[in-house]
Design a protein that fits this description.
alpha/beta; 8-stranded mixed beta sheet; 13 helices; 3-stranded antiparallel beta sheet
Length: 421
C-alpha cells in the first residue's frame, strides 16, 4: 500500500474522488451516531438491574436509612479497601461519582489548604501537571479554579518522568492529575518503574498531591489485563504517605448516575477531608452503598461482574481497531494504541487534521468527543488527537460510525496534502 505522503498529485486526486463518493453515500443515510463519551451501553446497564432488588437496610444493628456514618458503612469501606489494596480506615465512601470527590478535594485545597498549608487561593500562582493526552474533566476542574496546567507528554509506560521530576522542584507546582490504569484516552497502564518514580518524588511543595484517578482499575477487556503496581505500597519507602489521593467508583460497573465512589488516602489526609465533610454533609447515600455490597458480595464478585462487561466491550473495541487497521494502516496518516482495557481508543491523525476529520464526521452524522478535549483548555498543539468511545452505540451502529471516522480521517489528510501541492 502506497503511503499518502508518497503519492503524486494524480494519485492523491484520484483517491480523494473515490472517498468523496463514499462519504456522500454515508451522508445520504441521515445517520445520528454517538461516539462522544464513555457511556456504558443499555446492554451493560441491564447487567446491574438486580441491584434494585428489595433488601433490608440494616447493617450491624444500624438503620442505614438514617443519618450517620460520614465516612461510609463498614462493609462498603471493606469492599473498596480490598479492591484498592489498602486498610478500611484509609477509605472514605463518597457520592455517586469520583468526579465529585476530586472537585471537592481541589476546592478544599483552594479555600483552606492541605493539612494546614496556605490555601492555594492565597498564593501568587498554582500549577498542576497534566499528562497529555488526558481526561478533559480533570482539565475542566483545574480551569474552573484558575490553576495553571502544565502539559507533560505520555510515553508507552506513562508520563515523562524526567520532565515531572524537574517540574516538582518548583514550589508553585502543587499536584498532578493522572489515570494510571488504562489511561484516558490512550489506554496505557503505568509501568512499575513509573509508579515507583512517582512514589519517590521530592516536591518542593509539601502540599503537593497526586490525584490518582483509578477509574478503570478493574475494567479489563481481555482475560489477561494489565497489572498496576499499588502506589500505596511504595509511598512509605520514601516518606511520602500523604502525597497521593486515590479515587475510583462503580460508575462504569453498575449505574453511572447512581454508583458509589471511594477515596483512599493516608490517615492524615482522611482526617483532613473529614473535617471538611463534617461541614459539607451529614452522610452520603448509605442505602446505595449497602445495595452495592449486597450485589457484589466481595471483590471476586466485582471481578465476575466485570467479565460480563468485557464480553460486551471486547467485540466493539475489536471492531473499531479492525477498521482502523484496514482503512488507515499503512497509509502513513494515523497511529493508535490497542488498549487491553478501559473505555477509549486514542487515534493520532496527521498533524493539523483532527478538527477537520471531526467536522467531516459531524457532517455525516457521527458525534465525537470535541477534538482538542484531550488537552488543557481544549487546545491540542498538533491538532492531531481524536478520542474514540466505542461503548455506547449498538454494534451495527458502531460499525458504520467507525467506517465514517476512517473515511473522514483519510479525506482530511488528502485535503491537507492536496492543498500543499
Amino acid at each position: 500500500m502506497t503511503k499518502y505522503t508518497d503519492m503524486n498529485q494524480e494519485q492523491l486526486l484520484a483517491e480523494q474522488a473515490v472517498l468523496k463518493k463514499r462519504f456522500e453515500e454515508y451522508k445520504a443515510m441521515g445517520l445520528k451516531l454517538d461516539m462522544s463519551r464513555g457511556k456504558p451501553s443499555k446492554e451493560q446497564l441491564d447487567l446491574s438491574m438486580d441491584l434494585l432488588a428489595d433488601t433490608d437496610y440494616v447493617e450491624d444493628g444500624i438503620d442505614l436509612r438514617n443519618y450517620g456514618l460520614l465516612d461510609g458503612i463498614p462493609s462498603c469501606k471493606k469492599l473498596f479497601a480490598d479492591l484498592l489494596g489498602v486498610e478500611p480506615k484509609n477509605i472514605l465512601i463518597g457520592p455517586n461519582a469520583s468526579l465529585s470527590l476530586m472537585f471537592d478535594y481541589i476546592a478544599q485545597a483552594y479555600s483552606h489548604g492541605v493539612m494546614g498549608s496556605t490555601p492555594w487561593s492565597k498564593l501568587p500562582e498554582v500549577k498542576f501537571i497534566c499528562p497529555v493526552p488526558g481526561y478533559d474533566r480533570h482539565f475542566t476542574i483545574l480551569e474552573y479554579f484558575g490553576i495553571k496546567m502544565i502539559c507533560v507528554p505520555m510515553t508507552d509506560e506513562g508520563p515523562d518522568m524526567d520532565r515531572i521530576e524537574a517540574l516538582v522542584k518548583d514550589f508553585s507546582v502543587k499536584g498532578m492529575f493522572c489515570v494510571p490504569k488504562y489511561s484516558n484516552p490512550q489506554g496505557i497502564t503505568y509501568s512499575d518503574e513509573v509508579v515507583k518514580r512517582i512514589a519517590a518524588l521530592k516536591p518542593a511543595a509539601k502540599d503537593f498531591r497526586v490525584i490518582w484517578d483509578n477509574a478503570y482499575i478493574i475494567h479489563e477487556i481481555y482475560d489477561e489485563g494489565d497489572e498496576l503496581l499499588n502506589i500505596f505500597d511504595e509511598l512509605p519507602k520514601h516518606g511520602n504517605e500523604d502525597m497521593v489521593i486515590e479515587v475510583c467508583s462503580t460508575s462504569k460497573m453498575t449505574f453511572p448516575g447512581a454508583g458509589v465512589s471511594a477515596l483512599a488516602a493516608s490517615d492524615g489526609n482522611i482526617a483532613d477531608i473529614l473535617r471538611r465533610l463534617n461541614c459539607q454533609t451529614i452522610s452520603y447515600d448509605k442505602m446505595n452503598q449497602h445495595r452495592h455490597v449486597q450485589f457484589f458480595g466481595d471483590v471476586d464478585g466485582i471481578k465476575e461482574h466485570m467479565k460480563k462487561h468485557a464480553a460486551i466491550m471486547k467485540p466493539k473495541f475489536e471492531m473499531v481497531l479492525n477498521h482502523l487497521e484496514n482503512e488507515l494502516g499503512g497509509r502513513g496518516i494515523a497511529s493508535w494504541i490497542e488498549p487491553r482495557g478501559g473505555y477509549f481508543i486514542s487515534l493520532d491523525v496527521m498533524d493539523g487534521c483532527a478538527k477537520r476529520a471531526g467536522e467531516l464526521c459531524k457532517e455525516a452524522g457521527v458525534v465525537l468527543t470535541n477534538v482538542g478535549a484531550t488537552y488543557p483548555y481544549g487546545k491540542d498543539p498538533k491538532n492531531s488527537n481524536i478520542r474514540i468511545a466505542p461503548s455506547l452505540p449498538p454494534v451495527e451502529e458502531l460499525d458504520l460510525a467507525a467506517q465514517i471516522l476512517c473515511v473522514s480521517v483519510r479525506l482530511a489528510a488528502l485535503e491537507a496534502l492536496v492543498a500543499e501541492l
